[in-house]
């Protein structure tokens, strides 16, 4: 399959038509280059807050509400585009107020297939800024989507840094990692987490990023990153584990060809079999002998 992962800049939008044209332009470009799976970044949907005006976009709480209010329309748009261009799309995540979960918003990414099916994944663990600056909460459970492209999981940004989430998705062929990071250190943490999940799960991870400045909203005012696709540095994959990467801070798609058979092969007969041997940690991780050696 061919994957397209984004380094996505946020715009101050004049109208819904401008947003729809922007998203379709991105989807059409990726599909035109043969991509079957498209990944947009964490909080990329925050640009929808500008449709409520500059004052709303600059307000910490109202900006999140404005985005949530637009999600039904955004989901309908992405569903139509997935069907029209015959692609799978993981849309940019957004703050969503879901009273079934909490009075506070969750960070939710929606996933669309060419058949019109839709699922979603909520972020599990919030960063310090999400806790203190946004009061966003962890949402619903992890999902594993069984698709025509294989089994796909989503770990939103910070979630990729927690190995138990990767283990919970150990049957995933692909783990998508939409991210939004404001400094190089944050980007590096998520990139390292993505590569670690590919290593231990013996799968492919796909990372997207928001890029550039959006001074009109405090939640996404500066972002740095790039697209990246990673695999286990083992049989059938690059020895660095890096299948494809973009250019730091440069907007656009990064493409990668991924063979599902290579994932199955490395799991069955790789140079190492970390996924198979995972259970051998049991019991060895619960007892540590402390020895004084001074």
From TrEMBL:
UniProt GO molecular function: hydrolase activity
Coiled coil residues, start to end: none
Transmembrane segments: none
Pfam families hit by this protein: CN_hydrolase
Domain CN hydrolase span(s) in chain numbering: 1-260
CDD domains: nitrilase_Rim1_like
Keywords: Hydrolase
Name this protein carries in UniProt: Amidohydrolase
């Amino acid at each position: 399959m061919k994957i397209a992962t984004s380094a996505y800049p946020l715009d101050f939008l004049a109208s819904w038509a401008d947003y729809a044209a922007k998203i379709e332009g991105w989807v059409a470009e990726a599909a035109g280059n043969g991509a079957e799976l498209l990944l947009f970044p964490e909080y990329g949907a925050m640009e929808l807050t500008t449709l409520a005006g500059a004052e709303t976009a600059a307000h910490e709480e109202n900006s999140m509400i404005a985005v949530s209010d637009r999600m039904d329309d955004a989901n309908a748009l992405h569903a139509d585009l997935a069907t029209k261009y015959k692609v799978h799309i993981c849309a940019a995540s957004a703050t969503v107020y879901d009273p079934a979960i909490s009075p506070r918003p969750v960070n939710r990414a929606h996933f669309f297939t060419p058949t019109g099916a839709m699922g979603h994944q909520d972020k599990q663990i919030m960063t310090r800024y999400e806790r203190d600056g946004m009061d966003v909460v962890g949402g619903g459970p992890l999902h594993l989507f069984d698709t025509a492209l294989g089994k796909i999981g989503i770990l939103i940004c910070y979630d990729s840094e927690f190995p138990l989430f990767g283990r919970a998705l150990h049957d995933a062929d692909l783990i998508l990692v939409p991210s939004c990071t404001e400094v190089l250190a944050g980007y590096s943490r998520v990139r390292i987490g993505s590569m670690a999940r590919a290593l231990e799960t013996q799968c492919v991870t796909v990372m997207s990023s928001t890029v550039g400045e959006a001074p009109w909203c405090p939640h996404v005012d500066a972002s740095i990153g790039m697209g990246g696709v990673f695999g286990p540095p083992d049989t059938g994959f690059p020895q660095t584990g890096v299948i494809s990467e973009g250019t730091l801070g440069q907007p656009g798609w990064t493409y990668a060809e991924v063979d599902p058979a290579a994932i199955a092969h490395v799991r069955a007969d790789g140079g190492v079999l970390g996924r198979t041997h995972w259970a051998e940690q049991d019991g060895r991780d619960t007892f540590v002998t402390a020895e004084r050696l001074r």
